[in-house]
């Protein structure tokens, strides 16, 4: 565990790689904690890989030019695990959690709780059992996505405030994500919400009560084989205020408000 430390001019401030197999011990009850640290003028901040424990990355401050949190290849096959990334502030680095999942033959899962963070870069989740992304404030300082969600068994993206840079890229980008996206405010991107999948990986996404406003191109764009239920969203004052359904699945139900 690392708490109340300061790192300056580090190539990699905190790195945790654990290749030990805990299947015959009680280590699943342990929690890796990285809390209340200040990391400045550094490359990558926090990297966690190949663990089989709970994780809490909380209330850290990062200012640098690399990745803020990188969490990859963390797995479980005997217990439910929770990885919390909460209450952090990052200037210059993103949060990227990927390829962390349980054995498909069991009933366990790893849940990523990414909440209450203040960032000027993206949140990226890929190849996870379950992701909760909520109450984050992203004010981007470069032309990048807001929240990117790829190949997820299930996910919830709600109550986030996402503000883009120079009307570029996507506010929320969903690809094979099986997401419920609700109560977000998305503005100043090229496209507010983009949804897509392919023929062999059918998914279903719900867009509920989002405010999509002042984006440079489209409010909501559904492409390829994406399937969406869109209800009670406020989509207005985008360059093109309409929602676009280019999905081959031909499923797009909406009771949205346009202005």
Summary keywords:
0% helix; mainly beta; globular; 259 residues
Describe, in short, the structure shown.
This protein has no helices and 31 strands. With 259 residues, the chain is mainly beta. The protein has a 20-stranded parallel beta sheet that branches.
Overview of this structure, please?
The mean pLDDT is 88. The protein starts with a strand and ends with a strand. The strands form two sheets. The protein has a 20-stranded parallel beta sheet that branches. Strands 3, 6, 9, 10, 13, 16, 19, 22, 25, 28 and 30 form an eleven-stranded parallel beta sheet that branches. Helix content is 0%, strand content 56%. The chain has no helices and 31 strands. It is globular.
Low-confidence parts lasting 5 or more residues at pLDDT below 50?
A: none
What overall geometry do the principal axes of the alpha carbons give? globular
Radius of gyration: 19 Å
* Strand residue percentage: over 45%
Structural class: mainly beta
N-to-C span: 51 Å
Structure annotation, total helices: 0
Helix content class:
under 10%
Mean pLDDT: 88
The biggest sheet, with number of strands, parallel, antiparallel or mixed sense and barrel status, is: 20 strands, parallel
Q: How many strands appear in the DSSP assignment?
A: 31
């Amino acid at each position: 565990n690392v708490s109340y430390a300061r790192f300056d001019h580090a190539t990699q401030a905190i790195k945790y790689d654990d290749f030990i197999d805990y299947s015959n011990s009680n280590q699943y009850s342990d929690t890796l904690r990285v809390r209340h640290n200040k990391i400045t003028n550094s490359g990558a901040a926090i990297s966690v890989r190949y663990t089989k424990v709970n994780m809490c990355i909380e209330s850290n401050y990062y200012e640098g030019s690399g990745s803020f949190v990188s969490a990859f290849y963390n797995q479980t096959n005997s217990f439910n695990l929770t990885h919390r990334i909460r209450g952090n502030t990052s200037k210059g680095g993103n949060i990227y959690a990927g390829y962390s999942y349980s054995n498909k033959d069991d009933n366990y899962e790893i849940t990523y709780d990414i909440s209450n963070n203040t960032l000027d870069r993206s949140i990226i989740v890929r190849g996870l059992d379950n992701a909760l992304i909520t109450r984050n404030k992203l004010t981007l300082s470069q032309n990048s996505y807001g929240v990117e969600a790829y190949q997820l068994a299930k996910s919830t993206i709600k109550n986030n405030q996402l503000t883009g840079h120079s009307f570029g890229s996507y506010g929320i980008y969903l690809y094979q994500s099986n997401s419920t996206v609700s109560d977000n405010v998305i503005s100043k991107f090229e496209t507010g919400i983009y949804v897509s999948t392919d023929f062999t990986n059918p998914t279903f996404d719900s867009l509920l009560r989002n405010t999509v406003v002042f984006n440079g191109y489209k409010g909501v764009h559904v492409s390829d084989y994406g399937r969406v239920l869109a209800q009670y969203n406020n989509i207005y004052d985008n360059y093109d205020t309409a929602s676009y359904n280019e999905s081959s699945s031909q499923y797009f139900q909406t009771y949205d408000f346009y202005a």
